[in-house]
Amino acid sequence: MATLSTNPVSARAHTNIALIKYWGKRDEELIIPYTSSLSLTLDHFYTDTTVQFKSNLSEDQILIDGQQPTEKSFQRVHQFLGLIRKQAGFEMPAVVQSVNHVPTAAGLASSASAFAALAAAGSKAAGLQLSPTALSRLARRGSGSACRSIFGGFAEWQRGEDDLSSYARPLFQEKLTDIRVIALTVARGPKSISSRQGMKLSVDTSPYYPAWVKTCQADLERLKVAIDQNDFSQFGRISELNAMRMHALTLSADPDFTYFNSQTLTIMNLVKQLRHNGVACYYTIDAGPNVKVLCQQSAVAKIAATFSKVLGEKNVIVTKPGPGVQYL
């Protein structure tokens, strides 16, 4: 049995953006994906979570952003804590306080930072001494993309074949170090179709899903070469293309759906216009309407000014590669 921490344990984890997307599970319960993926952890968006296991409680006590979570969110955290308790060999309830410094459920990977922080704080509070690989594996069980937020910079989630072999690992920490991501927020509320719902619908009904699995692997290998060679234009082009291939699955599902809104499309066209005019930039979009523009430091001022006129300055945030999980 693990030795419990007598004090609360706090951890911070940052969001990541998938450059080669994860979209679809082979195993819903274990969250084993059909494809490997590659992401960049960002410095600006993060979740702080504090966990303490206490014997005098009758059940878990959970606060998210200072409020009681919905029943669905409570159960998701409760079940994840159950995984930690099982590993630690006890049944003690926990007090969890989590604060998201990122818009929730709007395509900015709030669940990735949330479950990475919960995995780190919860496992340490339970007395578990997990390696980075084991921590990544644990975080995956809460939210697939959380396994990548354990690491800073670029990370590859190796799809694996089972619970033991599906986890993330850091990559290319000294490559493309001047990369910047400009996060453009066009909507802050929860999306109408969750990532989980959208993935399942795409897997079950899109006739193009088998082609996605094959193409995604090729995109991943090509992107790794581009990063290793510090080739920003290839890096951006492959990332943008892979994002569009993912969203093609939503449009070809039955019933079809999209995470884009009118401003999403406006931004996509503006990025292409900037590129046509000699500004090296590319877009990527996860499960939500918000857009992330990939560029290098030298192009930041021009791009940020362009989108500040369209969206307002408060909706344009410049971010750079961020660190892995930290204990506070």
From TrEMBL:
GO terms for biological process: isopentenyl diphosphate biosynthetic process, mevalonate pathway. One of its GO terms (molecular function) is diphosphomevalonate decarboxylase activity. Residues 182-314 form the Mvd1 C-terminal domain. Its EC number is 4.1.1.33. The keyword Nucleotide-binding applies. Pfam families: MDD_C, MVD-like_N. It is an enzyme of class 4 (lyase). Belongs to the diphosphomevalonate decarboxylase family. This is diphosphomevalonate decarboxylase. The lineage of its organism: Bacteria, Bacillati, Bacillota, Bacilli, Lactobacillales.
